[in-house]
Amino acid sequence: MRLAQLGRSAASRRLPGLSPRLLCTAKPPAEPSGSVPAASLDAAGLPSTAPGETIVPGWLPGFLRPEASIAPDGFNRWMALPPVVAVQLSVGSLYAWSIFNGPLQRELGVIASSSADWALADIVPIFSTTCVVFGLSVATLGKGIETIGPRAAAAFGTAFWGGGLALTGIGAQMHSLPLLYAGYGICGGLGFALGYTSPLANNLSWFPDKKGMATGIAVGGFGSGALVCVPLASWLMAKYRELPTLLGMKDEVALTQEAGRTLAQVGGELQEVVVATAESLKVMPGVVEGGVYVVGTGSTGLSATFLTLSGGYTALMLLGALGQRLPRAFVEASFAKKSEGAGGDAATPPYVPVDTFCTLPQFWLLSAGIFGNAITGITLISCAKTLMSECYSPAYPLLVDGAFAGSFVAGMSLANLGGRLFWPSVSDAIGRRNTFLTFGALGVPILATMPSIAAAAAAAGGTDTMPLYAFIGSTMALTTCYGGLLGVFPPYLADIAGQKNVASIYGRVLASWACAALIGPKLMTYFRSTAMDEQLAKLAAQVDPTKFEAAFGAPVDELVTLTAAKAVTIPKLLELLPPGTPDPSYLLYDTTMYSLSGVVGMAFVANALVRPVDPKYFTGGGGGAK
Question: Cβ(493)–Cβ(360) under 8 Å?
Fold first, then answer.
């Protein structure tokens, strides 16, 4: 309490006439002319309310309260950008998620998946959960986030994001899927929402004359988060990983097959083991091909990596949170305009009230456009490393290894960053709506041709790398559109509905982005699983039944059970077939790409139907749009 009083007192001295009682008293004493009640700081990241109305919780510590973060006279507005970028960079590490898919699928087996390890369909929804919690949090807590201001919002975001990463590390160590969802999904989603939205909205008030550029720089920090996280997390996992216990070579150890599990005697008891293959060498250097390793020993290094990232990002975000500043001149100008004019709102630039806008066709069309355009980027990001490894590693085994796939993820982050910087600037020249239409015009044909590119790579057999780089270029183009989508949307909303309620409307429209995050990766894993089952059945039908039973300890009739236990895979079946048998892995994502192409086409139509809002729905500035 003492700290809060000191903070409020200090803030009052910085703005003459600003009484701390304004923040916690319903009927404060009258303000001298020219003072700036905190309750009126609507344009600087706080909601617009009548002077003296209670909006900021009394329990908020003084140094986190909005009035404590108002910039001093002469503050260089460009200095407001680094703290915003620091916070965005931290939560932007979310887009590196796909590099964790592989280690999580072999957390127990370490060098290969064991029967008790998680499947891709169990893991990818963690990323979706983070995005859904983000969308729901912004939609439901938007006004509250604005109320406490960007400094407090970023500070609380730090606690949730850093704590969520730590809980994820504990969940990986305990092999607890619920802890992973609670840590990365729920806590991470809350940290994402608090750290992303309010500082971003505040950034617009610093640069009202360069809205596209300011938004692009801020969200560019978010987009580059994975660019930093991918090499950092990969280095940490390599540093912390440990080889599991080696029992001996395959022909030296007595192995038993049971319900798809490979067992061996360890200390007088049967324990599950995994046998190292050529694929194991790609994920864990030092592994001996054909070696038998005990499940549950060794480590992928994932748990320690998450704990280390937790400490690093907590420190970086906290520095960014404490560096958040509100623009003093803009606040004073906003209050002066509000104090003039009989209507209190008459001098305010025209805007559409939040509740009104959410009933208009523009809201639903924009939501459909965001859903359709975002679903591609989110789906690709959620499984980027897995997609590259599964589709292109068989065709280019000497080129596409774990490091190459990791670089591909980093490249997508760079494309995401580039899109957030490039497309907002383009939108300043050609218009926001035309920019949105460009996303669809590019996305539909690119997605529709991706299956053909994968087929060309498989047919080339590693002799021609053109299809590989065509896929990389196509993916990067789509990722720039996704980054540009989020970079252009805030100023697009300001153009359509006015600046005043951008943060609140943005939060509600982002519910459709959350739906894309939930549906896209889920559909991808479903289509991939269906295609995988189909291709496994086709390959198994070509294998001699005797060889099949000898290899897996069960007849072909039990293929479904063996697949669920991760005993049967495409590479293992190909080992039982004649050399030169085509690897069908390139077909696993065809249905996904065609489906995404259709959804992007729907988004194009929705964006094309967006029209300016009728002036009768505006208030402020005389009640019409300018």
Answer: no
How far is residue 170's CA from residue 150's CA, in Å, rounded to a whole number?
30
DSSP-derived letter for residue 351 is B
CB–CB of 117/108 below 8 Å? yes
Shared-domain flag, residues 54 and 74: no
293 in the Ramachandran plot: left (φ > 0), alpha (ψ -120 to 50) or beta? beta
Report the run of H or E that residue 531 belongs to, with start and end.
helix 502-542
CA–CA distance, 599 with 372 (Å, rounded to integer) = 5
Residue 269 CB neighbours (<10 A): 8
For residues 465-493, b (16+ Cβ closer than 10 Å) or e, as one string?
Answer: bebbebbbebbbebbbbbbbbbbbbbbbb
290 shares its domain with 434 = no
Task: Give the structural domain span for 411.
Answer: 353-520+586-612
Q: Give the span between the Cα atoms of 76 and 539, in whole angstroms.
A: 65
State the first-to-last Cα distance of the chain, in angstroms, to the nearest integer.
Answer: 46
Same domain for 409 and 486: yes
Is 413 domain-assigned? yes
Q: 380-432, pLDDT tens digit by residue?
A: 999 999 999 999 999 998 899 888 998 999 899 889 888 877 888 899 889 99
Q: How far apart are CA 11 and CA 66, in angstroms?
A: 9
Asked if 615 contacts 625 with a C-beta cutoff of 8 angstroms, the reply is: yes
Is-above-0.70 flag for pTM? yes
